[in-house]
Design brief:
Largest sheet: none
Number of helices: 9
Number of domains: 1
Order of helices and strands: HHHHHHHHH
Length: 195
């Protein structure tokens, strides 16, 4: 079991020299997430909007040590959610939201996604279609608007916080080393962030 875990970590783990660096990187990431979640929560409360949880989930899924990776992940997440939400909205509004229509929406999303070569971001688009067609008592317009706006808000908040802390992050050797380390592609990262 330990060999399996070591094998998995050798492929997925960022290179850090010490446990101290790992803990410092975790603390920095936790602070970033706390800042993003606070900004989102306050903004959603101030404007009286639902969907803060979806925005926070999106921010969590696009934060990476490297700002370039975060921009790529945010773009793919927004695009995938637009595709899934719009297909879910169209099918749900015209044909309904029962299981056969959900399956039809998934088939359409998969074919469009494949034509656009979305690869692993396709899973996110499929999840968005399902959410739009099943949330809010099957009110697809409301669900699509909430989903798209929450994803955009979450991604924007995550990127804004990451841009704001980038001057600090550059000075921290454990962050700079992680940011410059070879990482999995953004499409591969989307595999783990389909929600």
């Amino acid at each position: 079991m330990m060999r399996l875990m070591a094998s998995i970590l050798s492929v997925t783990a960022a290179r850090r020299r010490t446990m101290r660096e790992s803990l410092l990187a975790a603390a920095f990431f936790a602070l970033e997430l706390a800042a993003v979640a606070t900004v989102i929560s306050v903004a959603y409360h101030y404007f009286g909007q639902p969907g803060a949880t979806w925005a926070i989930i999106s921010s969590v899924l696009v934060l990476y040590p490297g700002i370039t990776q975060s921009f790529s992940a945010a773009f793919l997440r927004i695009f995938a959610n637009l595709l899934g939400s719009l297909v879910g909205l169209a099918i749900g509004a015209w044909l309904g939201t029962d299981m056969p229509q959900v399956i039809l929406a998934l088939v359409i999303v998969i074919f469009i996604g494949e034509l656009l070569q979305m690869d692993l971001a396709l899973r996110t688009a499929c999840v968005a279609a399902i959410i739009v067609m099943s949330a809010n008592d099957h009110n697809v317009r409301l669900s699509a608007i909430e989903r798209i706006s929450a994803v955009i808000a979450g991604c924007a908040a995550a990127l804004a916080v990451q841009i704001a802390v980038k001057p600090i992050a550059r000075r921290l050797p454990f962050i700079a080393r992680t940011e410059n380390a070879p990482q999995m592609s953004t499409n591969a990262a989307m595999e783990s962030s389909a929600g």
